Amino acid sequence: MQVYKTFLKVIKNYRQGIIMYACIVIAMVTVLGATTNNGSNIFEKKSYNVIVNNQDDSEIASLLVAYLSENNKVSEDTFTEDQITDQLYYQLVCEYIVIPEDFGEKFLSDGTNIINAKYDEALPDGMFVNMQMNQFLNSVKSYVDLGYDLQEAADKTTTSMDDSFVTMKNSEGPGFDIQLYTKLVFLPFGILSIIFSGMLPAVISFNEKEKKNRTMISPIKLTTRNIAIVFGVTTVSVVVTAVVLLIAVAPKLGTYINDSKLWLSVLNAYVYTFVVTMLLSMVASFPIVSKKNDGVNSVSFITNIIGLSFAFLGGTFVGLDMLGDGVKKIGQFLPNYWYSTACIKIWQEGASFTEVVPCYGLQLLFGVVCLAIGIAATRFFRENRE
Amino acid sequence: MLGHVFLTQLKRGIRDKQSIFWCLAFPIALGTLMNFAFGSIYDSAKSTPIDVRVIVEEKAIDEYKTMQAFAKLGDTNLEEDALPFVQLLEELEYEDGTKMIHALYEDTDEDIANTITISGLNQITLEVSKNSIESSILSTIISTYKQNVDRIISVMNDHPEKMESSDSLMEETTESREYVKVTGLLGENKDPFVSYFYNIMAMVCTMCSMLAFGAIVGNQANQTVTGIRVDASPVNKFAYELAQYFAINLIQLAVSFLALVYFLFVLKVKFGGNLQYVFLTTALGTFLGTALGYMVGHFGNISRKAKENILVLISIGGGFLAGLMVNVMKAVIETKCPIINRINPSAVITDAFYALNVYGPGARYYRSISYIVLLTVAFIIIGAILSRRKQYASL
Q: Does B307 contact chain A (CB < 8 Å)?
C-alpha cells in the first residue's frame, strides 16, 4: 500500500504530461468525429467531394451542377489554384470541374470535350464522376433531340437513373455508425500515448538504481513493490481510458447506452489498456530507457515510435482493409490489430461477446508475452549488475 | 571564444550517444514501418479491372433471339457473349486503356463482391457486398445501359417501322458522347501516402529540437550547475548560445541527412523533385527545429518539464495538423484556416517537400522555403529577446 500511495504521489509530478497528451488526443478524436460521415447498409453510389467552377449561366450548366450535387458533395466556393491542387493531391477532393462560358451553346450544337476536369488519372474516382456527367448529358441530349425541353429532359433523365436494380448482401439491420466507430478505432493511439508519456517516467524513476537499492534493503519485498507499481499504473490507466472513452462516446451515449456494441467496445478498450500497462512494464525493464538526460527525452521518442508504429500497422490510422497482406501478417502480432478487428466485428458485423472474445484473448496474449519478457529482462539486467 | 564554445558543444553532442540514437532510431523505425504499411496502398487503389460474376439467364438469350428474328438478321444461334450488354462489359476500358471489367461467367469459389444477373434485354440486376467505387461504377454502367435500352424500346413502340433496324439501334446503346476533357494532376510522385514520409522528416526536425532545448536549458543558472558557471563567466550570452546553436545544427544535420539517405536509398521512397533541393529542404527544416528548441528553452521561468511538454505539444499537435496521423489534415487546414499552416513548424517543412514534388523548384517551392526561413529567424529572435536581462540574484 505504501508503494502504491507513493506511486500515485509521483504520478502527480507528471500530471502535466498526462493532461497535455489527453488534450491532444481529445482534440484529435473531436476533429476525426467532425470529418467523418455516417454509413449505411443500403446501396448508395460512392459520393465524392468535387469542386465546380461554373462560368456558364446557361440552363444546362445549372442542371448539370444540380445533378452532380444530388450524388456528390459539390463545392462552388472559390479556391486558389494552390488550394485546389492541395485538395486534389491529398484526395480530399476527387475532381475539379470547370464549366466554361460557352458550354450551353456547345452542348446544344453537339460539341464534345466541352467540360474541363482535373484529377488523378491513375485512380478510378475522377473517372466515375466523369461517367456520371457523361451519362447525364448524353441522356439529356437524347431527350432534347426527341423534342423535350431541357428541364423535362433533365427530369426524365433523373427519374430513369434510379438504382432500384442494385441490392446489398446482408442488408438487414441498421447501418453502422462510422463516426463513433472511427473515434473508437482511433482510441488505442490516445490510450497508449497518454499511458506511456505520463507513466513511463514515473515507473523508470522507481527503477533508478539508488531508489531500487533502497527498496531492496527495506522490509518490502521486490515482488510486492512491483505488484504495487503495476496496481498504480493500472489505477491511473483505468481513469485515463474512462476519460477518453467518455469523450469519444459522449455525443452518442443516449443512442447506444442499452446497446451491447457500446459495452463490448468499452471492454475492448479496457483490455487494450491492460495490455498497454503490461507493455509498459516490459519497456521500463530495459536499461536503454532512461528518464532523461541533458539531451533528448527518450520517453517522448519511445512513446512516438511505439504509438505510431502500432497505430499504422494495427489499422488505427488507416483501415485494415486498406493494408496489404504482408502488413496484416505483421500487424497480427500487435494488440492494435486485434483491437481494430474487434471494432470491425462489433460495429460492422454485429458480433456477440463470444465472437469477440478471441480478439480480446489475443490482445491479452500479447500483454502476457510482454510481461514475461519484462520479468526476464529485469532478472537478466539485475544479475548482470550484481 | 566562439570557436571554443562551438567545438566544446560539438564534442558534447557527439558524445551524447543516447540522444543521437533516439534521433536516428525514430525516423528509421517509423519510416521502415510506414514504407511497409503504405508502400502498396496507392498502387492498389489505381484503376484495375473490376471482378464481377455475370449470370446470364436463358430467357435473356431467348428475348434477344426473338428481337434478332424480328430484325430478320437470321443468326438466331446466339451465345451469351453475343448479348449487347455482355459485349459492352467486354469493351469498356479505363482512360489508360486498361480493361475495366473482368467478367467471370463460370461458377467459382472465389469471393467476388459483385454479381450481375441478366434476365432480359433491360432486366439487369446487381448484387453488391458493400458500397465501394467498384459497385458504384458497375451500377452506373448498368443504369446508363438500361436508360438507353428503355429509350430505344419507347422509340420502337412509337415507331414500329424502325423494328427492322433494331440491331443498329442496339449498337447505339453502347455509344456515348464524351463531354469531359481531362487534365492530369501535377506532381512527380502522385502517391499522397508519400506525405507521411514528409511528416516523419518534419517530426525528426521538430523532435530533435530537444537537443538544442537541452543545451539552452543547461545554460540557465536556475536549472543546472553548469548554467551557474556559464552565467558567472564573462562571455556574451547570445554569442555563446549562437555558437551552441551552430554546433547542435551540425550534429542534427548529420542525423537528418542520415535519416533522409535511409529513406531515399534504402527504402527507395520517391520524395519527388530534385535531390539537391530535397537535401536543402531537410537542412532548412533542421535549422527550424533547432531554432524551435532554442526559443522554447528560453520560455520564462517555468520548469524544464513544462517547457519539454510545450515542445512535445508543438511536435505532436503540429504533426497531427500537418498530416502525420491523417494525411489529409494539412489540406483541410489549408482551406479552413491557412494561417496555421504558415506558423506550424511541421506544416511548413512538410509543405516545402510537397511543393517540391508537385510544383518543382519554382515560385511555390520558394514561397514554402521562405516560410521556413522566416520562422527560423523569428524563433531565434524571440529566443534571443527572452534570454536577455535574466537575473539570478537568489542563486
A: no
CB within 8 Å of chain B, chain A residues 79-98: 79, 82-83, 85-92
Q: Is B126 left (phi over 0), alpha (psi -120 to 50) or beta?
A: beta
CA dist A254 → A191, A251, A262 (Å): 24, 8, 11
User: What tens digit of pLDDT does each residue of B213-248 get?
Assistant: 888 888 777 777 877 887 778 878 788 888 888 898
What is the pLDDT averaged over residues B38-51?
Answer: 75
Rounded CA separation A246/A262 (Å): 11
Nearest to B140 among A119, A135, A146 (CB): A135
Separation in Å, CA A352 to CA A137, A169, A195, B185: 48, 20, 29, 46
pLDDT of residue B20: 81
Q: Could you read off the pLDDT of B311-364 as tens digits, one per residue?
A: 888 888 888 888 888 778 888 888 888 899 899 999 999 999 999 998 888 888
A window 49-78, beta carbon within 8 A of B: none
Q: Taking CB atoms and an 8 Å cutoff, what residues of chain A touch B141? A: 131
Q: Is A159 exposed, middle or buried (0-12, 13-18, 19+ CB in 10 A)?
A: exposed
Task: Determine, for residues A17 and B146 on separate chains, whether the beta-carbon distance falls below 8 Å.
Answer: no
Query: Do residues A300 and B209 make contact, with C-beta atoms less than 8 angstroms apart?
Result: no
Q: Which of B148, B203, B202, B208 is nearest to B176 (CA)?
A: B148
Q: Which residues pair with A115 in a beta bridge?
A: B180
Chain A residues 218-277 with CB within 8 Å of chain B: none
Are residues B133 and A124, on separate chains, in Cβ contact within 8 Å?
yes
Cβ of B233 under 8 Å from any chain A Cβ?
no
Any residues with CB less than 8 A from the CB of B217 and at least 6 apart, and which?
B223, B224, B227, B297, B304, B307
> What are the angstrom distances between the C-alpha of A338 and each of A207, A283, A324, B106, B152?
31, 21, 16, 36, 54
Q: Which residues of A touch B183 (CB under 8 A)?
A: 116-118
User: Is A133 touching B (CB cutoff 8 A)?
Assistant: yes
Q: How far apart are CA B250 and CA B273, in angstroms?
A: 24
Given an 8 Å threshold on Cβ–Cβ distance, is A135 in contact with B41?
Answer: no
